[in-house]
Design a protein that fits this description.
By secondary structure, the protein is an all-alpha fold. About 70% of the residues lie in helices and about 0% in strands. It starts with a helix and ends with a helix. The relative contact order is 0.21.
Length: about 90
């Protein structure tokens, strides 16, 4: 696994035609942030900001996951979504 595969997966994700479920978006977001920024050290957003709270939770769910493992999970999910779309 390398940065190139991760970047290719990012490109492939943008080329998917169908909409992603909110759950898939949050999974991918969490892995992307973990892969690119590492552990989240930001304070939790207010509960009233549902979107920000969901994104923060998706990222913090990956606390302790190595950047490389986050990249692997991201690439695997994009490959799964690509296969699913192809039928």
């Amino acid at each position: 696994m390398c940065q190139v595969e991760f970047e290719l997966a990012r490109t492939a994700l943008k080329q998917l035609k169908g909409p992603l479920s909110d759950q898939d978006k949050l999974l991918l977001y969490g892995w992307y942030k973990q892969a690119t920024r590492g552990d989240c050290h930001l304070p939790a957003p207010p509960a009233s900001d549902l979107k920000a709270k969901a994104k923060w939770e998706a990222w913090t769910a990956n606390q302790g996951l190595s950047r490389m493992d986050a990249m692997r999970a991201y690439v695997a999910k994009v490959e799964e979504l690509t296969r699913k779309e192809a039928g």
